[in-house]
Amino acid sequence: MGQPQSKPSKPRFPQPGDHIYCERKGGLYDHHGIYVGDDMVIHLRGAAKKLGELPACHKCGDKRVENGEIAKVCIDCFIDGDTLQIYDYGVTYPEFSKRKRGTCCPRYSRPPDLVISAATDFLERNGFGPYDMFTNNCEHFAVCCKTGSADSYQIEGHIEGVIHTGPFAMVGASVFVAAYSISKGISQKSSSW
Ligand SMILES: [Zn+2]
């Protein structure tokens, strides 16, 4: 969809308070959460429901049901077989413009203890509001824990991709609607961003 594809920074093991993400569906979208230490992640799940619960994870007890709520799960459940990456904060604007949307942010992160306490507080109150792919998704949740205000650059990237379709700009709106429908279809089948 025309998004910049510059690579994220070198892989490293996440530290408590890091915003982590991993690709879903071969890179069609990413799922985001906050690593809180002890192999655990707090994340906002997608709103789609699976047909039935999967067997509970032996490590964290999670049944991996997408219910649009905030959950604390083990890092293996979060990654779900994909590759873990770390979302970068405080990147320069030139770097931000080159990188894929939804992988970094020009704003600075709060200290890790504040990030973890924000995520824990949202978890305990289930206080982040109902999941919405465009206005209240897993990236909004993670960025909000990190910075105090919610943004989703992944969504911006999809919209930019439509705007920058050049000669195809006239069909941009329908492309965007199609992309939304595809994403929505996927999210109804299994997990979602
Ligand atoms: Zn688990």
From TrEMBL:
Instruction: Please give the PANTHER family that the UniProt record associates with this protein.
Output: LRAT DOMAIN-CONTAINING PROTEIN, OS05G0310600 PROTEIN
Q: What is the protein name stated in its UniProt record?
A: LRAT domain-containing protein
Pfam families found in the cross-reference section: LRAT
Q: Where is the LRAT domain?
A: 21-154
Tell me which InterPro entries the record gives.
Answer: LRAT_dom
